[in-house]
Amino acid sequence: MMHTTARLVVITLLLPWTLVFAQVNGQQKPTGIGVEGQPQFSSQTLPDPSTYQHSVSLANVGSGNYSMAFALENGAKSVRFLMMLSGVQLNRAWMGIGFGSSMLSSGFIITHLLANGSVEMHEHTHRNQYAPPTSHEDPKNWVMEPLNGGYVNGIMFSEFRRPVDPPPPVEYPHVTLSFMSPQHMIWAYNPASKINTLGHYFTYHMPNDDNGNGLPHLPNQTHGALLVDYTRATVEPIPLNPYPPKVAHGSLMFIAWLVILPMGAFISRYLRFIPNWIYFHLTAQLLGVLIIITSFVVILATYINYNYPHAILGTTMIGLLCLQLLLGLGNRKMLRSVLPYSPRRQFIRIFHRTLGYTLLLAAIAQVALGLRILFPFEERRGLAFWIVYIIVAGLWILLFLGTELYRRLFLSVKDKTVPAPEVEQGNKFLEAGKPVPKGMTELAKVQDEKVYPDLLSYDWRSLDKAVSDGAILVVANGRYVYDASQWLRSHPGGQIILLAVAGTDISSDYFHEAGYDAAEFTPPRRIPLQRAERQDVTTLHESIPSTTPSNLAPDSLTSMSGTTEFMETSHYLTEEDWSKIVRARRTHVHTKVAIMRLSNLLVGELHPSHKRWQKALNQGSEPTLVNQDVGDGNDDAQNRLFDPEEYRRYALTSKTLVNPNTPGHPIFRLRFCLLYPYERRQGEPEIIYPGQAMEIQIRPHADRIPLSRYYSPVHGNMMALEVLVKMYPGDGVSGYLGKQRLGERQFKIRGPLGDPLVGPERPLGFGGTGADWVPEDMLFVSAGTGITPFLQLLQYLFLPTSVPLLANGDYTPAMSDEIALHEGDTIVVQHHYLDGWALGRNITTGEEGAFPLPKTHPRTSTKLTLLNAVHAPQDIIGTDLIDAVLLSYPRHLQVHHVISLREGSVENVSGFVYRGHVCEAVLAQAVSNESMGDEENERRSGRHAVVCGPPQFNSAMVDQLIYKFGYQSTDVTMLTSDSPYWYHHLETCNG
């Protein structure tokens, strides 16, 4: 009450000054003052429009009209306006003009007819909506001067003055009137207004009759637009900015953002089990983008204003949508690529997905902002549109959330993720959780419900042949063959995955059941570093016996009980190996829907080759093709019959350049580890014997057949193996392998293939003579990386681990970490330092520590001679192994290197070195190392030669050995990279 009284006092004090101001400026005497101080007029005399420069009828209203007149004043610094409305019953009517082209950008002057018959004028500003503009009733911020007004004989009128160039805004901006070009203006009226949500009699002016465009010749137009030229005193009525384009814009955006794009996202997220889902997704997204861009162009052609949230957010979303389109096309291209899965690809994929969902959420807000512009929520005229919006947006939200929840609760195979090994003291890896292999169980359930009388029969060889011919066949559960060709273009992980797994068993990665092996993983024990002050083993060479036993007597092993931990073949992986394995796996949990989809792709059944089956039977084991107990998580459930023709997948975990600064081709030492190391096969070999090869298959191009090459591992077993690869330029296997990065691909490798150079059925130390399993004299002629089988043989014969050796004499420890040896003691090597010393355990005494290898007999009496041809000194590989054997057993190895390049130091090269090429004279030096018989040119029995190098080199060397040095054709073995099998000379010539 006090507040109202104070207002009245202030108004009473200001009223005389207001009257004086009005008289000075031509303003009529106000008959009242509003609550905010705005003047109110009740003039009983109509103004004369002829006193204005120009008068125009804006609309025919019943029997009258709505008109406007204006005149320039004060030297064209201001404009005086007259507004008149008549012809209909007026009840709390309002009329107004706006300076601008639309409701979204104009400043307004509105005249209101009050209940007492007086009128008052206010300035209004737009709300960036097709809604009643905001009223400013306090005159202190006006630039408009109210002059006169009233309601006389059914005619409502008002007069006001407005400056052409308003002063800077205090609380809200004012439009500058244009004299340089015609001024856009809009007008509207409502003869019988209702109370709006703000409590004012200022409601929607209602549509034009017959959806008219506001031109004066049309009846009952409630709003329209003008072009006013103040300098020429002309007024040109113009059609309104068409409302239908805005509705079309909003409708198209609604359909695109809230119907088509969510549909495409839903397909991509939840319907990927449908073949060719990617094409449905792409079609929906491209159609949505096309509609959005079309709608954007439509609105740009009719209206441009970026000063409100809807326009700012919309423009931002258009830019992000274009980026999203590029990301989607890039992601699609990568799905079709055979390039490795890189962090960049992972970033693009995650960013594409995140940006897509962000845009969909932003679209919900953006459509609401658009509806707020066209159909303000407080006005009932747009209620139907709001209802449709809420229903559609709500349905999508419920559909996404409900489907995601259903998928997680009922469709997901709840395997645990692949656990990363954790390290604690003692270098033990902790068990991170052992998942139940439910995926395979789910497939077994589905598979058992089906009957397949006409399945094709495959073995691993025929399966590989079909894959090489273009089929995308995979094996699951060790038994069933599935044709995944229809998924090649639409697999969520890209076709690189299908190409990598084609022809292999996908049980572990498809069903996410390999997480268990992290708990099984045990890194190698820590090996003490070699001590620099240890004795030089060359001082012990004089004490080496001149003869070496050809075998170990069985009774020498009687004291080895309880030492199996040293006798077992090593299956160690390093932490670095494990990290690269996990990275290369890219394991994904497939839903039960995907598993059921896989069951529908069944085309065949896998059977072991007859040779492997028969071999298993001969060994007294019952070969089980498929373990029926697939759900118990036991190791035995993972075992299947081993077949060297089966491709298994490996990860590249280490890559080392072994000949840096070479003028020739670089040579890399590559380490491959089995992708699922503890998925063992029944009858799987523990050793890859010298002379055997592993076949590595690559597929550098999706549309070409796979390429493969045979490599003899320089070290390793079926779990982890290392090969030497000379990198040649081009698209060949070596060039491809040399360019690969660690952990980025899965490599298909099978083997071991071919016959070994030694007889594994009668290994040394368990009966038989040396001649039974390895020749007494062996000449190995190699070129380049052809030395690899020799290095393999060298380690197998002279640098074994977990193999019993006999001490050839006594050794007294010189340091605290060394062990004593006595002639006849049995020692097992745990680690070779490659300097003539080894770490091991004396089984006879139980001591463990370092000892000199020259004080032991090698496991064989064989004498090896190496003739190695290389391009440059830097190309000599395996020098660490060669030097280790020369230091340990110098009487059992002689080395000859032939270097074709004249430059380069050979100071640190062990053995005999020749410059040039291998010729008869050089070959004679190597051959002469073999023991001679009693008669001239008669060699003792048991000699053998192995040749390994390029084809032309092999042929030349074999010819020399046979025709120049008297070798029998059966005494010469030739190894090639084109085949895992070695040939005798006559067989090669006949082939």
TrEMBL record:
Is Transmembrane one of the keywords UniProt gives this record? yes
Q: Which residues form the signal peptide?
A: 1-22
Query: Could you name the Gene Ontology cellular component terms for this entry?
Result: membrane
Query: Cytochrome b561 domain: from which residue to which, for each copy?
Result: 215-409
- Transmembrane region positions? 93-115, 247-267, 279-304, 310-329, 350-371, 383-406
Which key words are in the record?
Electron transport, FAD, Flavoprotein, Membrane, Oxidoreductase, SH3 domain, Signal, Transmembrane, Transmembrane helix, Transport
Q: Cross-referenced Pfam families, in alphabetical order? A: Cyt-b5 (PF00173), SH3_1 (PF00018)
Q: Determine the domain of life of the protein's source.
A: Eukaryota
Q: Which family does it belong to?
A: Belongs to the flavoprotein pyridine nucleotide cytochrome reductase family.
Q: What is this protein called?
A: Cytochrome b5 heme-binding domain-containing protein
Organism, scientific name: Spizellomyces punctatus (strain DAOM BR117)
